[in-house]
Amino acid sequence: MEKIKKVLFPFLIPVIVLAAWIYATQLGKVPSSLLPGVSSVGEAFKRQIENGQLIQDLGVSLGRVVKGYAISIILGILLGALMGMSKSMWHLFHGVTTTIRQIPMMAWIPMIILWCGIKELSKVVIIVIAAFFPIMTNTLGGISSTPKEYIEVAKLYKLSRWKTFTKVYLPHAIPQIFVGLKLGLGTSWMAVVAAELIASVSGIGYRLSDARNMMRSDVMIVCMIVIGLVGALMDKIITLLFGVLTPWEKKGKAV
Amino acid sequence: MADTILKIEHLNKTFEVDKEKIDILKDINLEIKAGEFITIVGHSGCGKSTLLKIIGGLVEYTDGTVERNGKKVTEPGTDCGMVFQEHRLLPWLKIKDNVAFGLDGVPQDEREKLVKEHINLVHLDGFENVYPAQLSGGMSQRAAIARGLVSNPSILLLDEPFGALDALTRIQMQREIQRIWKEKKTTMIMVTHDIDEAIYLGKRIVVMSARPGEIKTILNVDSAAKNRGSADFAYYKKKIYDHFFEDAEDAPEYII
């Protein structure tokens, strides 16, 4: 029974939505310009795959996400860890980062385009800004909540600051860092699509805005579904990575 | 004296809470010889854990002198291990890596030898590669003892190490620590609020009073008192009770 739940339940809602979609477009009175039929979206998807456009668009967007996301991971974990371990670093950065964090990612886009143009750099910068804060704040949370008992043990055995970081603070913070990595991945995916929607000639977000200009709702829906699925896939990869990196998390009280 | 391993003279410790100075420890004088098993009993909040942390170099003291192996204590050192009430094993390290935690900078083959030796000492063979969450409370404390002893320190400080264990496991662990003490001949200083434990393990018992933490008396326990059912055991128990409740209006009516 548990197994059936595990295998079937995730598909229950998609199936219901699909059924409602088929019902609305085939039997209902929803015009196809507002909501194209499942079959025409399927055909649009097939066409996009066959002419290689979808893969190319995805490749461009993913390339931007990978670059921006990687930079955010480095900067976010670095600053989060520094602020979590050092009071002076915390005082130095906390006010500034909290203030900057309040500025919505969309509000950055005009200035970023002004400074960095509309080529690759501006997209990467926008992703960095979007993904940096969730990663940084969660790293900070994980590091600074390290129990002082463990830190005392490190002090007792005279571990250097670096060793204390790698053996005590960092492993303790890993679960929360991964929460940040997941949130950051979501926001960087959102950021790249938003940036491409506003100013771009390539990428999945550009394809979406192009389809809008052409009134091609079928292509728009293909793009949205692909964006969702690719995001979910990347989220899953991070979850698997987390499992590999934290073997102690799944071991229960076995003995 | 040559075999004095720990010397505390006129030790004072004050904390400042809301700009008011509070005496935690007042004029502590204690001399401990190599190989002794000292137990320190007192009410909770009498500063006994603070005293232990001062000896271990984890907490600074206000004035007086504390000398470990003839050297003034200013920081922790490999000559002094410590076991806490909570096992404080790092959840992300396997038991063997937790035990090796105190061996930073020791060459690998030497480290492996020491870890194996001490896992064997605490009877945890076969559990080298499990994580702390997979061990019971008693076994976790065994691992913590192995970690405390792995660098072969001359002093092991025990801060209510069995306080969180169930009664039967506690008695079992008291036997274990006694066996380990006899085997390793490490000087052990244990803080506890369990009077039975203090009598059973301590060669000398330091009785402390609270606010400010002062040493009330130091009792020498002779070996005849080690049997929990003996009259000598009861004698020491009454003596310690009397120290704790001498000011109280109603002294406890029964003792054992």
Overview of the molecule:
The complex is a heterodimer of chains A (255) and B (256). Chain A has 255 residues and is mainly alpha-helical. The longest helix of chain A is centred in the last third of the chain and has 38 residues. The two termini of chain A are 28 Å apart. Chain B has 2 domains: 182 residues, Rossmann fold; 67 residues, no CATH class. In chain B, the strands form 2 sheets. In chain B, strands 6-7-8-3-9-10 form a 6-stranded mixed β-sheet, sandwiched between helices. A 4-stranded antiparallel β-sheet of chain B has the order 2-1-4-5, covered by helices on one side. In chain B, strand 4 and strand 5 form a beta hairpin. By secondary structure, chain B is an alpha/beta fold. The model of chain B has no long low-confidence stretch (mean pLDDT 86). Classes of the chains: A mainly alpha (255), B alpha/beta (256). The interface between A and B is medium-sized, with 23 and 26 residues.
